Amino acid sequence: AQSVTQLGSHVSVSEGALVLLRCNYSSSVPPYLFWYVQYPNQGLQLLLKYTSAATLVKGINGFEAEFKKSETSFHLTKPSAHMSDAAEYFCAVSLGNTPLVFGKGTRLSVIA
Amino acid sequence: DVKVTQSSRYLVKRTGEKVFLECVQDMDHENMFWYRQDPGLGLRLIYFSYDVKMKEKGDIPEGYSVSREKKERFSLILESASTNQTSMYLCASRPTSGSTGELFFGEGSRLTVL
Q: With an 8 Å Cβ cutoff, are B108 and A32 in contact?
């Protein structure tokens, strides 16, 4: 069975600083990996996904993530945080034909 | 664009009431899912359906049932609502063919049980 661990339930950064949200996964076979974002009182929106092509994946709003098989990680980064990035972020794993398994989420706060 | 519509954004119900949460998608997706979201617990899978009239239990099915009579509609039913079912409920869909597993979500239904 797959599982996802997101390190840090709350991350706070200054505006303009690097954003780093950590995600480690467990899977017996190469998985598909996802990052979703949720703004207050909204559903989840896909930021980016890894589907076994390039290991560095670029997403919307300047976010990117790198798949590292040796570390079983898929950390999300953005070089410069903006106030509008404040939201909750979820990492998820799937084998394609299985339901997505989500991490517990990381709330990102951006301080002016 | 894929659109997943959840009929009620906010509901307030009383303990013991029967509750229906409706979800409709317009992209002819075979797979549909119901998740529950609680602070600190992330998203937990309640039920899913791979096709019409099919249903599978997820990780936390107790106290819930589902109905999938038409391909585009997937309903979540709380037979007798309890206060511990106060939560945000998220519906999602995806196609079967060529799927990487990516889900398309509705806006969510926030249920309060008094």
A: no
